[in-house]
Amino acid sequence: MGTHRLPGLTRGLLTRGLLTRGLLTRGLLALICVLPLSAPIALARGGASAGTITGMLMNGTHSNAPIAGQPVTVQGTTRGQARDLATTTTDGQGRFSFGGLAADNATIYAVYTRFQGGLYASGPITLATASNQQAMVTAYDATTSDANLRITNVVTLIRQPRPTVGLIGVGEFVTFHNSGTTAFVGGTAPANGLPMGLLRFALPSGATNLTPGVGFIGSQVIQVDTGFGATATVPPGDSEFAFAFDMSYASTQALVSYKAEYPSAQVAVLAPPTMLVEARDFSARGITDAFGSRYQVFWAASVRANASATLRLWDLPTAGEPSNLDFRALLALVAVLALLIVGLLLRYLKRGNLAAPSRLVALENAAISANAPARQRTAAAGRAAGRQTEHQALLRELLTLERARAAGTLDQATYRQREAETRAALRALLAEEDRPATPTAPDVAAPASADVATPQARTMSGGGR
In the structure, what pLDDT confidence band is assigned to residue 365 with cuts at 50, 70 and 90? Predict the structure, then answer.
């Protein structure tokens, strides 16, 4: 397929992402901040106050030594539109300065450079509160070797199928860790024993509608045998990449396989709660809530390079048949999908590690106030655990029925009756889980002097991530 041409809107999102690169490891929520700005970008004119950005370009590979004689550019973004405003060259001490910039709330700035083929940028800069700001940009010597690269976390989000076209939307958020002192810079020349030394991402056979997002700023995206690669920069430390694609399916089943192009410490797959999933190489970790939606969580750890971890989706709506669901809401842009995945990561990641598995299980008893007697909270937790066990049992029952029908040991009429009964029980259970728990009255025998715990905020909610 050759070089992937980004659609205009996506290319704009990637350009805007340049301003947020320094915030990615602190939440990536700055992606939201660059969208609502207004007024065109411009240098200060007339009565507008003028601002200045000064700073230094350093080489992180050589103990932050200044980089002299290197072109650097200041970029401004407003209302989602980015534009390079000016370019200068660093002096003998690696210093640069940009003046005459609009000092208002409308514009967010960043300073970036291309050094030895890699792209490096400052964090976002505003001049509204202080018209003179400093920006430090750290670049690194480049390498084409990927020996220091590994993947610390992968989150794969599976969306509801679109049976009329036989496609399932999938989003992936990948965190790379570079343990070296040089930056990996992907390129089209042979490297690492491959025809092209690209940063590689695997895709299932027949994947379509690839849409790169966070992390692919200024990169070529090129199809390769196992998926796609990018001429992306991975500096020392952590770097995040997000993309979305459609996976085709032909009958009522589909395999979802994660192939590790690099050693991968943790892989999480999130699927809708009503979707029938055979975990296979993953372990089921219960149900969790995010952004008002509910997901099944499946987990695999320590996937070796070139190895795969697979799960199977069962009982999908037959491809090509009309659906009762409205799938228009599922056609959101990759930017929205990337923010959702990032939100899930922020909720369940701490310093690059997914939270303890016990925290991934839905805490249906969270509505019970923290000052309830201990045995009330324990009883509520037991009820939540019981609902979780029943939920898994119902899903297993659906899988057993599907297998029996496929094997011919269950006639069609019996299958339909038992399948309908099981699904009705599953819907009832989900409705019960959605109802907040009602705390019982305090134990009248409790001593009056008993300590009262301070109420705590919910640890898992449907808002923000």
Answer: very low
What percent of the chain is predicted at pLDDT more than 70? 67
Structural domains of the chain, with CATH: 37-139 (2.60.40.1120), 149-361 (2.60.40), 365-434 (no CATH)
C-alpha 84/C-alpha 65 separation (Å) is 26
Angle in degrees, CA 118, 121, 124, rounded to 5 = 160
Neighbours of 94 (CB within 10 A): 22
Tokens 């990536």 — which residue?
28
Q: Dump pLDDT digits (tens) for 396-438.
A: 777 777 777 777 777 788 878 887 887 777 777 776 665 554 4
Strands (E), 163-263: 167-178, 183-185, 199-202, 208-212, 221-224, 227-230, 233-234, 237-248, 254-259
Report how far residue 127's alpha carbon sits from residue 181's, in angstroms, rounded to the nearest whole number.
33
Instruction: Answer whether residue 197 shows pLDDT above 80.
Output: yes
Mention every residue, 6+ apart, whose C-beta is less than 8 A from residue 312: 253, 254, 255, 256, 277, 278, 280
Beta-bridged to residue 310, according to DSSP, are: 257
Q: Structure tokens of 400?
A: 């057993």
Tokens representing 188 are 């089209």
Q: What is the pLDDT of residues 370-406, one digit of tens each?
A: 444 554 555 555 666 666 677 777 777 777 777 777 7
Per DSSP bridges, beta strands 132-139 and 50-59 are: parallel
pTM over 0.85: no
Which two structure tokens, joined as six digits, stand for 135? 């920006």
